[in-house]
Amino acid sequence: MTAALRIVETTPVPGHEILDQVRDFVARFSVFPSEHCAPMLALWYAHTWVADAFYITPRLILSSAEPGSGKTRVLEIAQHLTNQPEMTAGGSASALVRMVAAGPISILMDEVDAVFGPGGAGNEDVRQMLNLGYKRSATVPKTKGDPASGFTVERLPIFAPVALAGLAGRMPDTITTRAITIHLRRRRHDEHVESYRESRATRQATPIREALSAWMTSIGDNLVEAEPDMPDGVEDRPAEIWEPLLAIADQAGGHWPETARKACTYFVLNQKTAPSLGVRLLADLRALFTERDTDRLHTADIITHLRSIDDAPWTDLNGKPLDALRLSKELSPYQVAPLSLRINGKSAKGYTIHPTTDPVEQVGLTDAWARYLPAPKNGGAL
Asked: What pLDDT score does 140 carry?
């Protein structure tokens, strides 16, 4: 007599438990500067499995002041948990485009400081590809064919999750504004992590990876139209960056909706980042005009004051102090321009907080301050 087969139904592991496992696995091998880093990484790794459900894929940046701070280790762990990981160092823009077009792929790029120069300069083709490829609609046109048969244009998709690791100061600003950044530090002597052994990590990560893949595939359709609520103060591009991660957290349930929003607040609002030179200039000018309680100042007076600020860069801009020409050049992108002003009976070139149309058309400093600086704490007009 043949025994009847018994079918044993297994209960799927809840999403919040899967993300807990990913977070805990990540935390075993690294010391992070904040408790919010490992949960953020768990969500970022999860989004690689359903990147096509979203309009954007946030860049992940692993930065450090010095080598030996654990950036490569984070990428190595990411290989075990992301969708179709490709660990690489550099490479031409053409090669990266072809890799993405043959996807799906998650690019894990190490040694980015060797790709870009100081201040993120150089390798414009790679920078452009990384910038544009964070939105799903982006493509790169390539011609194919020959003179005999004719040429056609092939539009290659460049949308793919990308993690970048490198020394601080070498990442282009246009990439960092599209990214979530962890500033890693070397471990102290009293900080310990688990030793990484690739074969053991693979064996232990495989069931977590499979569970993550299955769960993300099962909720992919739910994420297409997701519009998660953002923490207060998170808007515009930061909100766009965090939308995929918060949508996944909401699907996971448990503590993850709250955990993800705390991480979002930490990375967007609580981390201090150095402003661009232009934004620093606008901030120093607002402080000066507020201190003087005036709506106009001569250029010479402005330059004298700016050069006197101890911790400011205005005495050494590429080896030269700030002068009238450089001041005008830095303010020009904000549509602020110098004009002849009469102050205390003296006429000279200067700047005003008001818009003007004649003889110079410009928006005035107040407009630039309102667009590029946080609202003044005292609520004043300046």
From this structure: 83
Same domain, 182 and 38: yes
Q: Is 340 left (phi over 0), alpha (psi -120 to 50) or beta?
A: beta
Query: Which residues fall within 8 angstroms of residue 15, CB to CB, at 6 or more apart?
Result: 215, 219, 251, 252, 253, 254, 256
252/246 Cα distance (integer angstroms): 10
- The values of phi and psi at residue 321, to 5°, are -75, 160
Is 258 part of a structural domain of the chain? yes
Q: What is the pTM of this model?
A: 0.80
From residue 353, how far is each of 210, 327, 348 by CA, in Å? Answer: 59, 15, 16
Quick check: is 3 in a domain? no
Q: What is the CA radius of gyration of the chain?
A: 26
Instruction: For residue 356, tell me if it sits in a domain.
Output: yes
CA–CA gap between residue 367 and residue 337 (Å, rounded)? 12
| Of 307, 280, 268, 306, residue with least CA distance to 369 | 280
| pLDDT tens column, 71-99 | 999 999 999 999 999 999 877 788 888 88
Q: Tell me: pLDDT of 302 over 60.
A: yes
Q: How far is CA 378 from CA 236, 375, 382, in A?
A: 24, 9, 9
Place of tokens 């904000």: 334
